[in-house]
Amino acid sequence: MDKFLARYMPIDVSAHGHQLDHISALVHWLMLVLFLGWSAYFVYALYRFRAKNNPTASYHGATSHFSTYTEVGVAVLEIILLIAFSIPAWYRWSSPVPNETNPLTVRVVAEQFA
User: Fold this and answer.
1) Which of 21, 52, 74, 108 has the most C-beta neighbours closer than 10 Å?
2) Each residue's pLDDT tens digit, 37-87
């Protein structure tokens, strides 16, 4: 997968660049799954509620709470996924770098109008 990503992602020059590339690829795959799922639902809704089967409008609306439960379920799933991805990633990237025998130290002094 690294060769596949190498064609589309910038060169990794940081210590955790491959992890960022992996997360970016994972997010794109998840978005593809969501896109295909919503597209399938859209096609189903177009077929199910076409004018041929429903010649008159229904003014009383939905009589069940299925949509409410589905929306709550999707929100809870998104929160769980966000927590499952963000907390381990934050822990890995915020933990101090282990000391090496000869670390490179860079001192930067910034001046605005020098």
Assistant:
1) 21
2) 999 999 998 888 888 877 787 787 777 888 889 899 989 988 998 888 788
Q: How many CA atoms lie within 13 A of 85 on its CB side?
A: 13
Q: Side chain identity at 104, as an amino acid letter? A: L
Cβ pair 18, 2 in contact under 8 A: yes
Distance between CA 19 and CA 39 in Å, rounded? 30
The one-character DSSP state at 97 is P
Instruction: Give the DSSP letter of residue 7.
Output: T
d(CA 80, CA 69): 16
Q: C-alpha 66: how far from its chain's center? A: 25
Q: Report d(CA 50, CA 55) in Å as an integer.
A: 8
The residue count for the chain: 114
What token pair was written down for 41?
């639902």
pTM of the full structure: 0.54
